[in-house]
Every structure is written in C-alpha cells, then in structure tokens.
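Running this now, will post back.
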Amino acid sequence: MRIKNAFFLFCFFLLSLQQFVAQKYALITQKDGKKYYNHTVVDGNSIFGLQQMYNCPVEDILEANPGIERGLNDGQLVLIPAEEKTIIHTVQKQETLYAISKMYAVPVDTIIAKNPGSEGGLKVGQRLKLENAVPRIQVDLLSVSVEENTREVPKPSEEVKSKFNVSFKDSIINHVVLPTETIYTISKRFMIPVETIKSVNNLNSNKVQTGQSIKIPLKKEKIEAVKIREVPVKNRTSKDSLLVFEKKDSYNIALFLPFNLDSTSTYNKSVVNAAFDYYMGASLAIDSLRKMGFRANFYVYDYQAKNETIQQQLAKPEFKTMDLIFAPLQVAEAEIVADWGRKNKVRVVLSVNMPPKLLEANRYVYALNPDNEILIRNLAYHIYKKHDNQQIVLIKGTKPDEDWMNQVFMNYFKEFPAKNSRPRVIEADWTNFKNFESLSAQTIFIFLSTDKDKVLKLLDKYKGNQTVSLFGLKEWADWKEVNGTIMNKYEFTYASPTHFDLRDPQVINFHKLYRRAYSADLTKTACQGYDAVLNVCSAFFLDKEMKKGLINSYQLNQIGKGNGIQNEGGFVLKFQDFEAKIDNQ
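Update: finished.
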C-alpha cells in the first residue's frame, strides 16, 4: 500500500512539475473577492509599462498596490486587477475541467452549469462558454500579450500624473520618511549626498520628520542597465587620515562607565553589573597592551556619579590632552561626549549599539557595533551569495519598522553584483506566503518582524521541515519560547553584531585568564570591553590589523564624506538545537 501511494505521489509530482515548466500564462489569484494577475517585476518594468502590458488603467494598479508609487523592485509581486468577461474556450489535448477552471479563475460548477454534459468528459475541439472568466495573459519576461482582452485603456488622468509624476520619471522618486530614519540613513540607502537631498528639497537643516515626503534624485546607474562583472568582496578598511594617529611616547585615554558609586536614587543593578563586567574585560585588555609595549594613561570616569555631571568631567584639565575616549554605554550621555569630541577634535569610540545619528557630520566618531541596516544588508548578502539557486520569498509585514526593514533588504539585494543570472526575491504577505512553497526545490522564507505571535506560528509551521529554511531577526533568539522551551526545536538564520561562543578556543583561553584574575565566569559584556579596548588601541596606535575579536568582527568604513566611521562586520548565525552557530553553509 505504501509503494502504491509513493508511486501515485511521484506521478502527481511529475505532472505538477511538467505543468509548472510548461506554464506560459500569468497566474490569477483572488483577494477580497476580486481577481488579479500576478506580475513579478523584472528589470525594465515601470508602472506605465504594466498598464500597457495588461491593458489596465494606472489608477487601478496603484489602488491595488499601496506604496507602489515609490517605484518597482526587481522580483516584487504586483497585483494587476483583472477584468471579467464571457469567453469561448476551445478544448485542447489533455485539458480537464479543473485545468480550465484554473486557467480562467472560474469554478468547475459554474462551467458545468453553463455547458451541460461537460461533466461527463471533454473532447478536443469542444467549445465551452465561460462566464465571469478572466482572460489569459501570455507572459514572456518583459513583454506580455493579452488573449481576448480588448478593453480600451484610458490614458492616465491629470490627477494621477500630478500625484505620481515624480516617481514615473525614473530619475526622481518620492520617499516617505519612516520611523527611526534620518537624512543621514536616507542618504546611505540611496547613495545620495546629504547636501544633494537638502538642495533638491530646499531644506535648511538636517532634520526630517516621520511621514515627511522628500524627493530623492536617483543616480544614473540606478536607471540604466549596466553590465557589471563579478568582483570579490573587499575589506573596505582604509588607512586614511581618520585611522592614522600621531605617534607619541605615551597616550591619554578615557573610559566612561555607569558605576553609579555614590548614589542609590538612580541605581540600576543590571546596568552597574554591566559596567563592572566591561571594566574587568577592559582592564585585561590594558594588561595585554602593556605587554605589547603600548604606553598610555587610562582615566576611568563614573558618568552616573551624583556629585559630578558628565559636562564637569569633560571640563577636567586632563581632557585637554586626551587622545581617545571610550564613550558612555547609554545614548544620551554618549551623544554629549560625541559632540564634545567633534568640537575638540578628539576621537570617540562607541563600543555598544548606538543610533546612526551620532555619526552624522562627526568624523571623530567610531561605531564598533553594526546598526540594524548593516545587519539586514549582511543577511541579504549571505542569502544572495549562498542560496541563489533556491526560491527566495520575503514575507512583508505591515508595521512601519517592518516596512523599513523590507525596503532596506530589497534595496541592498538589488545592488549586489550580477552573476550569470540574478536571484530574484518573491514578495509575499502573511496571507499568501504559503502559496510559494516549492515542491521541487528548497524554499527560503524571510520574515523581518518582531511580531512574536506571527513569528512563533511561522517557526511552528516549518519546524523539522527539510525543504524550508527560515531567516529572521536576532531578537527571536532572545525569546524564552525559542531558547527555553524544550519542545520547540526551532531552526532559523539571522544576522548578529556579535557571536559569544564559549567553545571557541580563543574564548576558552580568555575565560581561563578571566577566572584567574577575578574568580568569576566570563560574560558577554566583559568580552565586549576586552575587544573594544584591545582592538581599537592596537589598531589605532600600534598599526595592528583590526579584524576579529573574542565576540566581534571588524570591518571599518567611513559612511559618507564628513561622517563618522562605522563597523560593517558581524556574523550570520544559525539557531539550531537551542544555540547559535556561525553559518558556514
């Protein structure tokens, strides 16, 4: 019985595969009672071009795809409203009622009701009357020919032209500012200088507001198809003036940490513990630096001290000769120190995650922790490089931060060098992503969301599934439902700024040293303090290569002229059997 079932499934699979390969017509889907053609965007498509391809008014396409006026992305799924009409279909060889039903999005029962006797079987050449049918559209990549669809397409109204004219020029787009975005991050994404954005939009300052619509002039190479040869990814660390320090016999270096030693009113145990862990790791780094011949005076400041503000600390005499400052671990205080460094031309190191705004127009700031945009780019590159022969599906969320992450992913994915054939990303949503499960190949689902309910449902659905791989966010690994529930053996891949692996030989040796020094177990924060102080000082003052630490990977790059330097390193990790490992697939 099992053999028969297996043989039946194998035959069904071959038939389905044959139909898939032979398919040359646009797929038809239904949403909210309406019927649509599924169009996958390719290079060269435009919104007005889709109007001509499908004989569908621009207004209808825009209404069916909110946000599409900002431009089309390669691999994006666009819904094209379909017009229903009565069609006479001539039966071809091997066609069935079910197949014809799928062709025209007409229920089998409706076909039988309008064509008595068809339930008994179809004959080649038989003509069937199909009411409320969707005309088939033959797809040939960049061109589409319409079968029996003769409706006249009106030209775009003046209202539509005036509303969407900027986007349709393909040289300028309207961008709506998303939450957490600044003019600096927008300039990074579109590779347009901040001054150009300000000039085009008549802005007098660098401030932009969430929901504000601004014009973005696209670079010429974004518009024209350019043949790009594949080149190896290079380490973009550069020894420019920002990475070269004046040689001295001895240096002055400051560390700001939140010890909170003389106050209990604002005491936070977890913050104070983190401060001491960071300090203990940094102290061991200082010992290592001295053994390497590095001479420096290290000053440690409790920036949460009750009797002294951070501004008063910065006014101390020793800061007039300070060569380097490790900034506070909290944003508000780090911003004060970064601004002081800019005004006094002193380098400031941000060793934990900070908002990108601290690097804007401040060439004296070094951010050691990759921001979220860089992590998404690293994940996109990993998928592009390692999984290009698999079906890639991006499940789009509905929240503003999810929309931002999806846009970042797609923008970077399109920018990577072209291979023999560029892998495409299918854009789906929560209601239809299951339709893209592939029977014949591995499917990758990317869900950049922290909606715990949906994420857990996704993880549950594909738990143990060998044909589906999930890619998500580092926050998932911190949830107790994921890392602390024994029945949930989830697997997914994500990008992370750090990787704390107690089995790493380098970490094992440091753990032994840490225990001998402090009679305590090693923590991630202690590793962070050690990595930051050892790698920054040895690279800046001793000309050592800054590449790999205990838990960090370093690849420094200046983000735009006049801005600070950002670490673009990090890791792509696979969460499996309740632990994260570097994905070396």
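Residues 269-291 form the longest helix (23 residues). More later if anyone needs it.
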